[in-house]
Amino acid sequence: MSHPAMIFAAGLGTRMGELTRDRPKPLLEVLGRPLIDRTLDLARGAGVPRVVVNTHAHAAMLADHLAKAAPDALISHEPELLETGGGLRRALPLLAADTVFTLNTDVIWSKPNPLQLLLRAWDPARMDALLCLIPLEATRTHREHGDFSRAEDGSLERRGGAATAPFVYGGAQLIRTEAAAVFPEGHFSLNAIWDRLIEAGRLHGVVHPGPWIDVGRPEGLAEAETFLGRQDRVRQCS
Q1: In the beta sheet, which residues pair with residue 168?
Q2: Mean pLDDT, rounded, for 72-96
Q3: For 130-163, what is each residue's pLDDT tens digit?
Q4: Is the Cα dihedral 16, 44, 212, 176 positive or negative?
Q5: Where are the alpha helices (DSSP H) in 46-82?
Q6: CATH fold of 5-237, please?
Q7: Residue 235: predicted pLDDT
Q8: How many helices (H) and strands (E) does the chain have?
Q9: Which helix (H) or strand (E) element contains residue 132?
Q10: Is the pLDDT of residue 234 over 90?
Q11: What are phi and psi of 201, to 5 degrees?
């Protein structure tokens, strides 16, 4: 049995510059397909029964697209940006589940499907959230240092004051909604939830082998087109 999914699509996309002046970042295209459509593919591939998408920037344009591409998707509109944690908190009544996936739209995944990977590794006896992690060396166009270190049992710690950490958060997780519900409604990051879970020993990670492409900046779009175009050629020749 799968879980509902929250797709984060409300951001301003400021790192994309002029590309997001007249459209939301999730509607930027890679090889002719909007980023959000590729994210919806991951949800469908994992048998997700319900999808909720939050909107803010260019909300009407995104809603019009979803009406065609995913007519069953529910929209959680944010008149004011609530960030990732606040967006999840606001969408809880629409998600209507104890455990949900969350997905970012500004990344490109290689196989396996990260949601299927999360499902196989999920252990509710030990976890309140399970993050899909990418080895730092398997990331592309990612300018930041790693985010987490991972113990043998899968539990996570922050990079803290270290110069780097071996794993990057890939933008997909499985999380108990109770972890967000304990926060008051309003503006806050998923990081606030994760910090609380780290203290309780309830934040874990599963490793995706990559490659994984950060599409948060214009150069990420070009890298994604190169990567996916190469994959298409390999499939055609096999």
Answers
A1: 134
A2: 98
A3: 999 999 999 998 878 899 999 999 999 999 989 8
A4: positive
A5: 59-69
A6: Spore Coat Polysaccharide Biosynthesis Protein SpsA; Chain A (3.90.550)
A7: 58
A8: 7, 14
A9: strand 129-135
A10: no
A11: 70, 25
Please tell me which residue, 236 or 10, carries the higher pLDDT value. 10
The three-point CA angle 215-9-181 to 5° equals 120
DSSP state of 201: T
Copy the structure tokens of residue 63: 């809603």
CA–CA dist 194, 20 (Å, integer): 29
Count of alpha carbons within 13 angstroms of residue 7, beta-carbon side: 29
Kindly give, in sequence order, each residue whose CB lies less than 8 Å from that of residue 23, ignoring residues fewer than 6 positions away: 58, 61
Q: Are strands 167-176 and 99-104 parallel, antiparallel or unpaired?
A: antiparallel
Round to the nearest angstrom and report the end-to-end CA distance of the chain. Answer: 33
Please, where are the H alpha helices in 76-158?
83-95, 114-121
Compute the distance between CA of residue 72 and CA of residue 65 in angstroms, rounded to an integer: 12
User: What are the backbone angles phi and psi of residue 50, rounded to the nearest 5°?
Assistant: -150, 135
Which amino acid is located at 80 in the chain? E
